[in-house]
Amino acid sequence: MEGSGTNSPESVLSHITAFEKLLRHAISRFSKERLYSMLQVAAEEQKAANPSQPRGAKTAAEAKKPTTASILKIKSMDQLRQSMKPLMKREEKNVKLSEKEKQALRYLETFENDYKYLGNLKRHFDDNIHSVLLKDYFDPADRPRRSALKERTEGNDRSTLSSRNVKGKNAKKGPPPTEEEIRTAEMQKLFAVVTQMEELERKWAGLLKDRELNPDDFDPDSSHELMTFSNYSVFEPLLRLAPDAFVKCYNAVDMAKEWLTLAKSIYGDRLPLKSKVREQKPKSRENTLPKSRESSIMSKSRESTLSPKPKSPEVQKTKTSPDPDESMKVANEYAQQAKEIKQNIRDIGEAIQENEIKLENLNEEMQALESREGRIDELTNNFEQVDSKLLHAQKEYNTFLYERQQTMENMNNVRRGSQEHNELMNRANQFNAELTKRQSALKVLEYKKNVVQEDYLLELELRPNFIHFLGDLKQQVEDIKTIIQDKQTEKQELEKQLALLKTNTEKIKQQMQKYLESSENSDQLTRQLSKLTKEIEDDLNSIEGMESERSFVSESDDVDLSEYITGFKPNTPSVKGYNSTPKREKVTYHIQSKTKQPVAS
C-alpha cells in the first residue's frame, strides 16, 4: 500500500491537480490583445522620451551607427515601468490623456498583478510538487549503470542485424528484456525527466526576474501565440512572457506526472522514500541489546541459575558468581547505545527547531493573506458609499432638470416682457447654473465610482486565489504541527530509554561492588565501571528537556536487568526502593525454587 502521509503519491497528485486549476484560472483572465495595446503605448512613450537626432546633425561616421530610436526596445519589466512613468506623471498633473493611454495605464496595474501571480504559481509548484518529488520520489544513488544499457542496446542491434539476414518465417526475434533491464530503462527515463525538470526550472525562473529577458529562456511553442500580431519586435520579450510561462507550466505538469508514474513503478511501496526512512530511523536504534547478544547472555545466565552442578558448595559459588569481563562488556554496550541515543535526540531537536521556524514563517504569511479580507471589506464599503452618493446626486439632478423644464413651459405660456415672464426667466437661469454645478459633481462621483469599482472587481477576481493559497498554508501549518508533535513524542521516548540505561548501569555497578572487593583487579574494574556510568550520566544531563515535570521512568519500566546479565539475584535493595513489588517477588521465587530443587534432590 502506498504512503498515505503528507507526501504520499495521492497528496502529490492532488497538488498537481490544484496547480492545474490555478493555471487555468490565470489563462482565463489573461488578455494578449490588451497587453499588446499597452506595450504599443509604452513603446511610443519610450520613443518620445528618447528622440533621434536631426539628419543634418549626423556626420558620415555617425550615419553608419544605429540611432537611439532604432535600438530602443522593451525587454524587461523594469524597462516597461520606466517607459510608462511619463504617462503616469501626466495623469497625476491632470493632463488630458487619450482613451488608449488611459486603458494602457489601467492594464499596466493588471499586468503587474498577473506577473506576481505567475511568480506565486511557480512558488506553489516548487514548494508543493518539485521539492517533494526531489526529496521523496528520487534517489540519486539508484543511477542506472550505462554499461548495462549499452550491453542491452548492442545485444538488440546484433539480433536485429541477424534477423534481417533471415527471410520469411525463419526471422528470429530478440530475447525479451529482463526485469532488471526494464527497471534500468525506467531509471534512465526518470533521470532524464529529472534533468529536463532542472533545465525547465532554470529557464522558468529566468522569465520571472525584473532583469532583461534572455531569448534562450523562451520555449519555441510560445512563438505561435504572436502570429496574430504585427510590428511587435520592439517589445516581443514582454508580449511573449506570459504565454511562455503558461507553456512552461503545462510542461512542468506533464513532467511531474511522468516523474510520479516512473517513481511508483520503480520504488513501489517504498514511497515516499525519505519520509519512510525518517519514520524507521528511531526504530533502527532501539535502546536494547542486540538479539544475538541478548539471547546468549540470557541463556548463559539461566543455565548458571537454573541448572547448577551440585558438585560442591565452592563449585556452585564459582558458577553463580558474575563474570566481571562479561559485565564490563555489557556496560560498554550500554555506553555505546547511550551515545547513539544522544545523537538521535540531538538530530530530532534540530528537526523540531527547523520545523518551528517554518511554522513561524507560515503563520506570518497566513496573517498577511488574512489581512486581505480587511481590504475586501474596505473596498466593499467604499464602493457602496460612492454608489449611494451617485444615486442621490442623480436624483437631485433629475429633480432640478424637471423643475427647469416646467419653468420653461410656463414661460412659453406667458407674454414676453411681463413681470411674470421676467421672474420665470430669472428662475430658469438659476436652474441652469445649479444644473451645471450638479453635472460637474456627477462627473466627479462617476469617476470615483469607476476607480473604486475597478479596484473592487480586481480584488474579487483575485480573491479565490488568495483563499486557495490561504487554505494551502493552513494545511501546511497543520502538517508541520503534527510533525513537531511526533518528533517531541519520539524525543521523549529516547530520553526515557536513556534514563533506563543510566538506571540499569547504576544497578550493575552496585551489584558488582561486593564481588569486586575480593578481586585483584577490583580497583581497575571499579574505575572502568564508574567511568562508563559517568559517561551515561553526562549524556543524560546534556540533553535539553530532561528537566521535565513528569518522570520518564515509571515503576513498571524499572526492570532490574542485572539478574539476567550477571546470573544472580541481588540481595541488596534497589536505590529507588521499590524493587520488592509482588510481581517481582513472584518472579524471583520462581527462579530460586527451580535453582534449589536440584540441590535438594
From TrEMBL:
- Taking the record's annotation, the residue ranges forming a coiled coil are 331-396, 470-549
Q: Does the keyword Lipoprotein apply?
A: no
Q: Where is the composition biased (Polar residues)?
A: 295-307, 570-581, 590-601
**Protein name (record):** Outer dense fiber protein 2-like isoform X3
User: What is the primary gene name for this protein?
Assistant: LOC111111054
Annotated region (Disordered), positions in chain: 45-66, 144-182, 276-328, 570-601
Q: Which UniProt keywords apply?
A: Coiled coil
| Annotated Basic and acidic residues bias | 144-157, 276-294, 311-328
